[in-house]
Write a structure and sequence with these properties.
CATH superfamily of the largest domain: P-loop containing nucleotide triphosphate hydrolases
Oligomer: single chain
Radius of gyration: 22 Å
Strand order of the largest sheet: 3-2-4-1-5-6-7
Number of helices: 7
CATH topology of the largest domain: Rossmann fold
CATH architecture of the largest domain: 3-Layer(aba) Sandwich
Largest sheet: 7 strands, mixed
């Protein structure tokens, strides 16, 4: 009997339509929640496993289904856990797991550039808000991310009265920041209430409508050398760039430009392959997280060396620069007024898209500053850039700047 040719899976089922970030204080259970939603533990770096915290940005995908009989939403499993009916596919979602430790705030900020919506995770066994609860909420508000779902995690570790007290604290905190968001109680490691959480995500975090017809614009959030040590040269894969497309599209065979490139000079390379966690693509559009194999030497992309680069259509990216002028806007909720000022000669950390760069302030005039970057960066006029300042031996998000 002749075998029927297997139909190729449509790209819309392989590529996610939205990136949802997980933010919140350290040890609130963000990574456990990603595992409950996707079945994947995203802390795989040896230091992450040793210390028990997220250090790099983690990524994982999940399919959302809705039961046609009982209306239950759930992820990963295609059959409803209640009635076993075959679920109706809703959409594929990419999760971006941001580190919560205070020393990794700049890493979280670079991850925010990839998010379309956010899950703010609060631990039920701690008072709300904690330090990074405040800073992470400030970060996503600064990034104009207004689609938020709040998770009250670890409810299995508290009594009913303690959970209600914590819930009241969360509501008060959200009200003080003028945030309207549902609060879903969960116990991530027990997968309690995950269906209700997915229903909230489907209701409150919509997939963005992004323009595929504009010139390609993509942030690089990770970069890799995927070759196994000892691989023969003729069997090696080119350097891989991972991130999300903000506008436009890309297909296998396209020439793409990378800025600031190497030593402040743009680089042009060719797209060899495009893939997601679910498989390969011939064509990628905005939304979701993708990886692009290029003709770059893989030694230049290993260990996130290309993180922070802009990727675009040839001739469309801004020129690399080592100086930047910003119109500064201080965060309303910065706890110490002493750090709401920037002085000449001061060191700042600027998060420009997914790039983090040290900068020295050269000029201050009113609410505008000029700074010298330690390394070249590429940015557009009008782009929002996070400004962090050292205070009490750590970097604090104190303001955002609009590139002039």
């Amino acid at each position: 009997m002749k075998k029927t040719k297997k139909e190729k899976k449509p790209d819309r089922d392989v590529q996610s339509s939205v990136n949802i970030g997980l933010i919140g204080h350290v040890d609130a259970g963000k990574t456990s929640l990603v595992e409950a939603l996707t079945g994947k533990w995203v802390d795989t770096h040896s230091e992450e496993l040793k210390r028990g915290i997220s250090i790099r940005i983690g990524y994982a995908d999940a399919n959302f289904y809705k039961c046609p009989n009982c209306g239950t939403y759930f992820s990963v499993e295609e059959n409803c856990p209640k009635c076993k009916a075959h679920g109706v596919f809703q959409r594929k979602v990419s999760f971006v797991d941001a580190p919560g430790h205070e020393t990794l705030m700049t890493t979280m900020l670079s991850g925010a550039a990839l998010m379309h919506g956010a899950i703010l995770v609060v631990a039920a066994n701690e008072d709300c808000p904690q330090a990074q609860t405040i800073e992470h909420l400030n970060a996503i508000k600064m990034s104009k991310i207004d689609q938020i779902v709040v998770v009250q995690n670890k409810i299995d570790l508290v009594t009913k009265d303690e959970a209600l007290k914590n819930y009241a604290q969360i509501q008060k905190f959200l009200k003080s920041y003028s945030v309207s968001a549902p609060v879903i109680p969960t116990a991530a490691h027990l997968k309690v209430n995950i269906s209700a959480l997915i229903e909230a995500l489907e209701t409150h975090i919509k997939s963005p409508l992004l323009d595929e017809n504009k010139p390609l614009k993509m942030y690089c959030g990770r970069s890799f050398d995927v070759n196994i040590p000892g691989t023969e040269i003729d069997k090696m894969f080119g350097g891989v760039l991972g991130g999300t497309i903000l506008q436009g599209s890309v297909k296998v065979g396209d020439a793409i430009e990378i800025s600031p490139g190497f030593d402040g000079k743009k680089v042009i390379t060719t797209v060899c392959n495009i893939s997601t966690a679910s498989g390969k693509l011939d064509f990628a559009k905005p939304g979701g997280l993708i990886a692009i194999e290029t003709t770059l030497d893989p030694s230049t992309t290993q260990n996130d060396q290309m993180k922070g680069q802009l990727i675009g259509a040839v001739g469309t990216l801004p020129e690399p620069a080592k100086e930047i002028e910003l119109e500064v806007h201080y965060m309303d909720r910065t706890t110490s007024k002493a750090i709401q000022s920037i002085k000449i000669g001061e060191s700042l950390v600027l998060t420009i898209g997914t790039m983090t760069s040290l900068a020295i302030v050269k000029k201050v005039q009113g609410n505008k500053i000029s700074a010298q970057l330690k390394k070249e960066a590429s940015f557009w006029k009008g782009q929002t850039i996070a400004i962090s300042k050292q205070h009490e031996m750590r970097w604090r998000l104190v303001a955002y700047g609009i590139a002039q």
